[in-house]
Amino acid sequence: MQRFLPLQDYPEHLFYADVLARLSDPATAYSRYYEADLRVGPYSAFYWLVLALAKVMSVEAAGKAVMSLYFVGAGLSVAGLDRLMSRRPGRPSPPWASLLVFPLLFNQEWYLGFTNYLLSLPPLLWILAEAGEVARRDRPPAGSPLRQTLAYLLLSLTHPFTLLVAAGAGLILPLRDPNDPRARRDGHRGQECYNGPFTRRGIAA
Fold first, then answer.
1. CB atoms near residue 133 (< 10 Å)
2. pTM of the complete model
3. In the predicted model, what is the mean pLDDT of residues 34-62?
């Protein structure tokens, strides 16, 4: 097993996390050259997660565990999207369809080691799945506002680009699916949909 993940920027991010975790350790010279200035904001999720796990394991193991969250979270989010697509009238997806996404997880950003961007993808996929589920109902499912708000909070700690994508999707996806039989039955009745911090009135086709 490789000691370090073969990703371009990952060793640098891991080094920063090690400095933060061991800044006051007299066995290192970190305090002579560095000052900690980690804040709650974009690009900080990886470091906060590694620091939390480094209390019970080494920084190297914590880094691998955090990067594993990318695959676990993406798998769960894609499974949610797959369930949503399977319930669409006339367009069901086979149960194995979500497995096709797995090879795509090893993308250019993965090999470039863009840690916080990768960690932002599972919350983004989850928001898309939740928004699609909301659009299918007359009212948000139980717990959906809380789940989406937590997903937006996670995005705010990872990468601003995916946060902007989620915000744009929040203004578009709550529109009712024109293929939904309820939309055709209800005519042009508006539908109030919650999507994270955004609320938009969808107009049925």
1. 17
2. 0.73
3. 93
